[in-house]
């Protein structure tokens, strides 16, 4: 990639050639003029003019690009913000754990790689750790049809604490596609869940136990920082965060030491996947390499148009992920400034995204609107989420992991697999793409190409685990019908997806892709009820759009 100095030099050479051609043309039209290139003074003047023209052109292009990115940030901050590194952490109780440990959402973890500084992660939902584990997983065939999966839990000593809600992370040999197949099998066939405290008796029915696969337990609904489309971007970036089976256990008897959860499924267990006790992992929580905090104070004195937004601890390698708010520091406290998109003018601000840095991440600048700041300087602070792009290079190395600001005795922390590295959205990099996205915002229905463009604009679909599904998408067919007055005269739009090939080993991946595309389109088209279905190969496809 050409750096700024190379671009400036290339532009300077182009300007120099243009001025030399102009001098020759002028000399032919005006022979009496004394513009000899061999004259050192003329040569220096031409070089100065060429350099001035090159600097002016470079500054203009940079200014136009900055204005474009500012518009992007104003309209689509939820699409442009980088996605942080993510992982699943598991708390493994040891014999020293004698109490229940509660970890609220946004608990901070410090990960120390073998090389480099500390990487800071925060939990995406709350976690409750008790001193017991999964002893075994057994499979029984049912007389009529289907099977029964027995999850046997064992404590080291009698407990009186109620297990409550257990969130089991489904992880088959750290393979996402295999784990997704097991997850879909359970979601499709699980018809009854029961629990027995004490020894397992196959003749005993046990107590009913509520089970669900709802991903909202990951803190999505209570996260005040994320746009709903950001939730979908996060999912496509790190889909493992949704592979959870949640069990709501009934009250336990006193001094219990073991219990068994029986999952009755209406179909036979898939032969390809051997049940084992590591398939269902207890006490796990998704982590995000994203930290909330304030920037270095910015002194706005009217001598600059823009100010770099920097973390107060640059040695930790933090880069800005997303601005949450800008505040003026006064004697009475912190007063929030208005975003320029909502209301411009005095007392507002804009955010400008600069080019990518060599060490990862982009440099962001603050543009405060305070015309009187030259006479009355103001101190500003930016509250933001920060990530650490340098961790990508250390994500596969050995590490030590612990909770920050809290000592935990009797628990060992481990990542279930290597962390997913952070992603920068490089899809919307032109004015044409930005204007096209603005056009899509005001469309009442989308074509097949529109759907593909929207998926590309997310930035995490084409670079993540669903990339193959997106490449396999052959076309989209739309059926639209009007709804009645009870539905406020909205329309129902059904998008049928057609794929180039149908592969049995990726069916669950395709179905999951369609499910989350449904959520995306439902958010993008507010005046319609959206449904996304997969069209079978034997169905007519003459109306499909490539």
TrEMBL record:
InterPro entries: T6SS_TssF. It comes from the Bacteria. Pfam families: T6SS_TssF (PF05947). This is Type VI secretion system baseplate subunit TssF. It comes from Candidatus Methylospira mobilis. The lineage of its organism: Bacteria, Pseudomonadati, Pseudomonadota, Gammaproteobacteria, Methylococcales.
């Amino acid at each position: 990639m050409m750096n700024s100095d190379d671009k400036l030099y290339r532009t300077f050479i182009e300007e120099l050639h243009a001025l030399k051609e102009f001098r020759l043309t002028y000399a032919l039209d005006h022979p009496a003029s004394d513009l000899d290139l061999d004259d050192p003074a003329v040569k220096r003047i031409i070089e100065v003019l060429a350099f001035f023209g090159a600097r002016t052109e470079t500054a203009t292009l940079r200014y136009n690009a900055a204005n474009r990115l500012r518009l992007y940030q104003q309209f689509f901050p939820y699409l442009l913000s980088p996605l942080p590194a993510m992982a699943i952490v598991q708390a493994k109780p040891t014999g020293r754990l004698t109490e229940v440990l509660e970890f609220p959402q946004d608990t901070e973890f410090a990960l120390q790689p073998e090389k480099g500084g500390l990487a800071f992660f925060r939990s995406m939902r709350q976690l409750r750790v008790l001193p017991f584990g999964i002893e075994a997983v057994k499979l029984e065939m049912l007389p009529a049809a289907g099977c029964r999966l027995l999850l046997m839990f064992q404590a080291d000593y009698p407990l009186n604490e109620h297990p409550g809600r257990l969130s089991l992370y489904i992880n088959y040999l750290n393979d996402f596609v295999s784990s997704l197949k097991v997850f879909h099998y359970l979601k499709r066939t699980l018809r009854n869940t029961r629990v027995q405290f004490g020894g397992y008796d196959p003749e005993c029915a046990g107590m009913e136990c509520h089970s669900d696969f709802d991903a909202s337990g990951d803190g999505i609904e209570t996260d005040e920082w994320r746009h709903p489309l950001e939730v979908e971007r996060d999912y496509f970036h790190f889909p493992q965060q949704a592979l959870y089976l949640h069990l709501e256990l009934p009250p336990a008897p006193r001094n219990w030491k073991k219990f068994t959860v029986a999952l009755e499924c209406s179909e036979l267990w898939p032969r390809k996947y051997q049940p084992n006790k590591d398939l269902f992992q207890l006490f796990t929580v998704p982590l995000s390499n994203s930290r909330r905090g304030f920037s270095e104070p910015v002194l706005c004195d009217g001598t600059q148009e823009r100010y770099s937004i920097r973390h107060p601890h640059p040695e930790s390698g933090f880069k800005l992920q997303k601005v949450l708010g800008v505040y003026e520091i006064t004697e009475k406290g912190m007063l929030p400034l208005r975003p320029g998109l909502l209301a411009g003018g005095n007392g507002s601000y804009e955010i400008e995204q600069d080019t990518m840095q060599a060490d990862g991440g982009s440099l962001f600048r603050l543009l405060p609107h305070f015309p009187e700041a030259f006479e009355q300087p103001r101190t500003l602070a930016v509250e933001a989420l920060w990530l650490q792009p340098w961790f990508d290079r250390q994500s596969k190395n050995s590490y030590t992991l612990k909770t920050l600001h809290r000592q935990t005795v009797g628990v060992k922390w481990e990542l279930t697999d290597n962390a997913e590295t952070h992603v920068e959205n490089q899809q919307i990099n032109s004015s044409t793409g930005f204007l096209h996205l603005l056009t899509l915002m005001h469309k009442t229905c989308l074509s097949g190409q529109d759907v593909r463009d929207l998926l590309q604009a997310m930035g995490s679909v084409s670079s993540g685990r669903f990339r193959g599904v997106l490449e396999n998408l052959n076309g989209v067919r739309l059926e639209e019908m009007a709804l009645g007055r009870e539905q406020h005269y909205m329309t129902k739009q059904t998008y049928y997806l057609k794929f180039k090939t149908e592969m049995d080993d990726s069916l669950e991946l395709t179905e999951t892709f369609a499910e989350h595309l449904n959520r995306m389109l439902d958010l993008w088209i507010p005046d319609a009820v959206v449904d996304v279905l997969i069209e079978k190969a034997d169905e007519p496809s003459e109306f499909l759009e490539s």
